Amino acid sequence: KSARAELLYGSYLKFTGAYDEAIVHLSRAVAMSPGKQAMQRELGFAYLSKGDIAAAFPIMKDAYDLAPENGIARDAYALAAVYAGDRKVAEELLTPVYGMPAAPTDEFARAYATRNDYATVILIWQKRIADAKAGGVDNPQYHMSLAAAYMGAGQRANAIAELRIAIGLDSQFKKQGESYISEIEAGRNP
Asked: Do 71 and 106 meet the contact criterion of CB atoms below 8 Å apart?
C-alpha cells in the first residue's frame, strides 16, 4: 500500500517487459501520489515501451506540466510527442535547449527513425560525434550509426564516407565495414 513500492515494482516489471502488469502497478503509484512527476513519467514510459503512444502522450504532457522546468520531464514529453507524430511540440521544447528538435540520445534517434525522419536522425548523430570529439573521443560506433542514418535518407556516398571513418578508428571493424561499403557501392543495402 505504498506508492514508492508500487513505483519500484512497476519499474521492475517494465524493465522485464511485463508492460501490462507494470502499468497496473505504476497506475496505482500515480493514483496514490498524483503530484509526483517521476511516477507519471515512469507510467508514460511503460505505455511507450508497450507501444501505446495514444496513452503515453497525455501522461507525459501531464508530468511535464507539473514542473516544466524539469529537463527530464521536458525530454520525456518531447520523446512521446515524436512518437505521436507531433514534431511541433518537440521543436518548441527542445530547439531552445539543443539547437534541434531532439536531444542527442539513442532514444531520440530511434524515435525519429520510426517516423522516417532521417534528416533529424542525421543531426542527432552529427551532434553526438561533435560532442564526443569535443570531449577528446571519436567513437566509431557513432560514425556507423550516422552511416545508417545516411542510408535511411538515401545518402549512400555520405554513408560510405562515415563507414571509412569508422574503419579508420577501429581496425577490428575493417572487414565488416569494407563489406558494407561493397554492398552500398553495388546498390544494395547491407
From this structure: no
